[in-house]
Amino acid sequence: MTATQTSAKPVVAGYDTGDMAALGMAADQAAVRHTGLRVLVRRAVPVWTSHLAMGVCPPAAFDDDDPAAELAREAVARLRHDHPGTADDLYGTARSLPRAMLREAGDAAMLVTGRDTAHPDATTRLAGRAGCPVLSVPDGSSTDPAAPVLLVGADAPGDAAEFAMAQASARGVPVLACDLGPATGEFADAVVRAADRHPSVEVYQQGRAGLTRTPAGIAVLRTPGRRGDAAWPLLNGLLRDAPYPVATVPAAH
């Protein structure tokens, strides 16, 4: 196998079920970025490695009889088969996955996590604290590769507009831009500037109604800056109701 050069920050994904949706998207993102993929799996730590519990550990430090470990190894093997040019590394952690991923965020190009649509709070908190893009993928998510990228915001989208255009360019799909805020022109101006840098991407205006029914491949919005930020309820609503993956992008990323 010829591994991707991994001098760039890796994509970090959490894995705690048998669902491959989040891992598949994480591998796709790593391939597009020409970087590696680090997969974290929740594991029980034997007594003799308890001093390692604060960080991530290679699989050899864990009990290989753990069924979760075997599922994780099988999942990573599939990723290596489907993405032979991407270096995929598997690590275990005794922390909860959100806490472990937050610890890794400073050295990550992106965090990719599965999502419990009934309890999106953990993903919301992770997105608000990570400092890098966070991609949340619903369990069992399967999107049409030709589906557009949905860019949504209640104010100026910051770097989310550039992220959305780059995603659309890599996929060869259009961007649907939905401005949920007052008609100040900030959102539209940012979209136009980002579109000018990606002339191959077609951009269409998306109405406010029925966002969760929009046939999107991924939704992109700015990471909320604080609890009173208009992006907080927007993010919570999408994480709870949207059937498609949702990416948050820090304004200064």
Word description of this protein:
This protein is globular. It has seven helices and eleven strands. It has 253 residues and is an alpha/beta fold.
The largest β sheet comes out as: 11 strands, mixed
Number of strands: 11
Q: N-to-C terminal Cα separation, in Å?
A: 32 Å
**Pairing-aware structural class of the strands and helices?**
alpha/beta
Task: Please state the overall shape, judged from the principal axes of the Cα atoms.
Answer: globular
Residue windows where pLDDT falls under 50 for at least 5 positions: 1-6, 47-54
Oligomer: single chain
Order of helices and strands: EHEEHEHEHEEHEHEEHE
Rg from alpha-carbon coordinates: 18 Å
Mean pLDDT: 83
What is the number of helices?
A: 7
The helicity comes to 25-40%
> How large a portion of the residues is in β-strands, by DSSP E?
15-25%
Strand order of the largest sheet: 3-4-2-1-5-6-11-10-7-8-9
Characteristic key phrases:
single chain; 253 residues; alpha/beta; eleven-stranded mixed β-sheet; 32% helix; globular; disordered N terminus
Nutshell version of this structure?
This protein is an alpha/beta fold and 253 residues long. The chain contains seven helices and eleven strands. 32% of the residues lie in helices and 21% in strands.
